[in-house]
């Protein structure tokens, strides 16, 4: 074998089998004893998991398959899932290798980074170490194909597109919301009114200095909106952003903030016949829209040029349209 083996362990030997029988070795538990098939699971330093089929007669390895699990060396631990043995593989993220409905599954766990783990002998659960904490995990939703990861956004996502490079671009639009510039402007207005009121009272109040300190503290304070909530300006007020992000990591590559009362409704990636080598993003935007009775103060199609592999968006121009552009499609 050309790579270094990080760990190896002897799997459970079924009743009647010799302890030194071929195929009893596994990097964290033997998968497939009930079917009479023996596999060797090996974790490597480069973050790759190897699974090889062991011949029950000669002990030769065949049908070797590899899977990259993460950037850290792979550690393997034997656990129990639905009464059967499974393998918990830990790298920069954790994976569960198990059988479900007579099929093998290698599924990433929706959990933080782990260091070590061990399964309970009588219960279906895992006790694990993460950093300096001891955690007890329960495995649910076995057999599901998708692994869910949540990334927080500023406003409600309305549309999302995937670029051919794997980058994602989405529009977020919120009704009854302030933009960041409007929030700061409103805070400065409130602080100025506090100072003017203190100046009008003069020495009669004796608290002018205290009011000035309170106004300065109010301007510098930045309360987290997920905890305390966002200020609500009232109906007919809109806030929108255009976000370019990496969907695998959740990192935002670029964020374009629209002006107050501009609402992004639709987006479209396309190529024009006059310049087929470049991609463009079209965003349908309305201005000063009210929901009841429905009316718009204006509507435009804003065009951005896609730079590189959707590394950023460069604004080109906008075109006025008669009504709200609810949807767009290239042809």
UniProtKB/TrEMBL annotation:
InterPro entries: Beta-prop_RSE1/DDB1/CPSF1_2nd (IPR058543), RSE1/DDB1/CFT1 (IPR050358), RSE1/DDB1/CPSF1_C (IPR004871), WD40/YVTN_repeat-like_dom_sf (IPR015943). GO terms for cellular component: nucleus. Residues 35-139 form the RSE1/DDB1/CPSF1 second beta-propeller domain. One of its GO terms (molecular function) is nucleic acid binding. Residues 239-331 form the RSE1/DDB1/CPSF1 C-terminal domain. PANTHER family: DNA REPAIR/RNA PROCESSING CPSF FAMILY. This is CPSF_A domain-containing protein.
